[in-house]
Design goal:
Helix content: 40-55%
Shape: elongated
Radius of gyration: 30 Å
Keywords: Membrane, Transmembrane, Transmembrane helix
Distance between the termini: 118 Å
Pfam family, one: DUF247
Organism: Juglans regia (English walnut)
Order of helices and strands: HHHHHHHHHHHHEEEEHHHEHHH
InterPro entries: DUF247_pln
Protein name: UPF0481 protein At3g47200-like
């Protein structure tokens, strides 16, 4: 064995090794295989590449010329600042931007800064054009589908740009002597909210929510903060050990719970879609809107929660709950009849089929949002009457005809028993008279 040669080879690899940034600083991740195996396409951009992870995807090269067009238009909006000023500003935060990526970015420093400037300006100009609905000589907004696809691409975990890049560029473009940093931040938040609120029904945004957003890490984090943070959700104060793994406290499916006497009711619009409640045998669920890009959005939010240790598992908890409730087309159909499940922009019932597969990984996580709800629902199973009624209905009364036959048999049996009793009484009286 050539120990010296092997050691020399390892030392050479160590010399080339570039350690990734500390995980506490990272916010943009490659999606783990365990989460992407159910739907690889949900994590891959279809129109535009943002940042380094999909930079070399040849299928997205067509959008590169549009990036330069959008950059030029953004600079022409005010005439200031000059492109050099944007580059110098990003250069000052280059290290912070690089630390946001959990993978080592294989780009020279100047190329990385160039990418941050071009991609950041593309996003800002796209947001402006979405607000203005300006379509003149614009290959993006002259189509009906491309703006929607770009919005979806901007919410992919692997396709994120550090929020500080957007803030830096936006402040340079909009700044004047009379504006404050707080005011500029609110303007940027408002600008970002426009396409999200138009393309996704679950996104709620108003002045109250804007003030609660806090600091974002990127656009996906901004979207998540808006739906998780406001209005606040009641969380378990101290989740029991059994709630660490969601599969340890499963509840029955919709149809099984119906057999046990549980009712399902929609919640009026305006609340947080995560705010599912169980009270007095009634499960109250805010509307679940199934749109063209809903699956991609949810899968990326779930992936973000599993990659970023600073995040809770609110969206993952919601997906686990849906995975238990929706096991069959009949479960989804009942929720649809109750206006809980609403399919938008499509009449295809299969659009809702992904809900039962949205999160079915054998993966532990702390802070399950619905541990108290599941505990209350599971108490129903302790009722012998509820279990007996469900079994009776499942085994004997699946069809209305079976129930009718059963009721007919009960009535007939009672009638015959009554006649038999009457004849017995008459016979007894007759025997007394003859005695």
């Amino acid at each position: 064995m050539d120990a010296e040669g092997i050691a020399s080879s390892i030392e050479g690899k160590l010399d080339q090794y570039l350690p990734p940034p500390p995980i506490s600083q990272c916010s943009i991740f490659k999606v783990p295989n365990m989460l992407r195996r159910d739907n690889e396409r949900a994590f891959t951009p279809e129109v535009v590449s943002i940042g380094p992870f999909h930079r070399n995807n040849m299928q997205l090269r067509e959008m590169e010329n549009n990036k330069l067009q959008y950059l030029e238009c953004l600079l022409n909006r005010t005439g200031t600042p000059k492109l050099k000023s944007l580059v110098e500003a990003i250069d000052r935060i280059e290290q912070d931007c690089g630390d946001c990526y959990a993978e080592v970015v294989d780009l020279r420093r100047d190329k990385f800064i160039e990418m941050m400037v071009i991609d950041g300006c593309l996003i800002l100009e796209f947001l402006y054009r979405y607000q203005e609905k300006r379509c003149v000589d614009d290959p993006v907004f002259n189509t009906s589908w491309m703006p929607r696809k770009i919005v979806a691409d901007l919410l992919l975990l692997e396709n994120q740009l550090p929020w500080c890049v957007l803030v830096c560029l936006f402040n340079l473009i909009t700044t004047n002597d009379s504006t404050t940093t707080e005011y500029q931040n609110s303007l940027l938040n408002d600008l970002v909210a426009i396409p999200f609120s138009m393309e996704y029904r679950i996104f709620y945004y108003d002045e109250h929510r804007r003030n609660r957003l806090g600091t974002q890490k990127h656009l996906l984090d901004y979207f998540r903060n808006s739906i998780v943070g406001s209005p606040p959700i009641k969380r378990p104060e101290s989740p029991p050990a059994s709630s660490v793994h969601p599969n340890w406290i499963p509840i029955k499916s919709v149809m099984e719970l119906l057999d046990l006497g549980v009712g399902f009711f929609p919640v009026p619009d305006g609340g947080n879609f995560l705010d599912v409640k169980f009270e007095d045998g009634k499960m109250k669920i805010p509307a679940i809107f199934i749109e063209e890009n809903t699956e991609c959005l949810f899968r990326n939010l779930i992936a973000f929660e599993h990659c970023d240790p600073s995040k809770g598992y609110e969206i993952t908890s919601y997906a686990s709950l849906l995975n238990w409730l929706i096991k069959s087309p009949e479960d989804a159909l009942h929720l649809k009849k109750k206006d809980i499940l609403q399919i938008i922009r499509s009449s295809n019932e299969d659009k809702a089929s992904f809900l039962k597969l949205l999160y079915n990984n054998d993966t532990s996580f702390h802070g399950f949002l619905y541990s108290d709800l599941c505990e209350d629902v599971n108490k129903i199973y302790s009722s012998n009457w509820a279990v007996w009624r469900a079994r009776l209905k499942r085994e004997y009364f699946n069809e209305p005809k079976e129930l009718a036959n059963f009721l007919y048999g009960v009535v007939l049996s009672a009638y015959l028993s009554l006649i038999q009793t009457v004849f017995a009484i008459l016979s007894y009286k007759a025997s007394i008279k003859n005695a």
